[in-house]
Amino acid sequence: MATKRLFIAGRVQGVGYRAWMVHQAERLGVSGWVRNRSDGTLEALVDGDTASVEELLRLCRRGPLLAVVTEIVEELAEPYPEPGFGRMPSA
């Protein structure tokens, strides 16, 4: 199992990134959340088996069609206690 907090920078707000990420995480069976940050980046917590988390990270480096990802910072995090993946309020 792997749990990571992600900070995703670039053109990632206003391009459907959060909805896209929810779909990808659900498809891969990854739990957690994603939210917009006031500085224009996204923050996400992803939790699941290592292969699925790594696949989601690989997909996040490209993002949805209109996104331009310039950087993803990864931090180890505590396991997420809830099943499913959703959107959190902006921070």
Question: What are the defining features of this structure?
Answer:
91 residues; alpha+beta
Can you lay out the helices and strands and say which pair or pack?
Blueprint: E1 2-11, H1 17-28, E2 31-36, E3 42-48, H2 50-60, E4 68-76, E5 85-87
Parallel strand pairs: 2-5
Antiparallel strand pairs: 1-3, 1-4, 2-3
Structural summary, described in words:
Helix 1 runs antiparallel to helix 2. With 91 residues, this protein is of the alpha+beta class. A hairpin with a 5-residue loop joins strand 2 (31-36) and strand 3 (42-48). It has one domain (2-75): Alpha-Beta Plaits (2-Layer Sandwich), CATH 3.30.70.100. It has helices at residues 17-28, 50-60, and strands at 2-11, 31-36, 42-48, 68-76, 85-87.
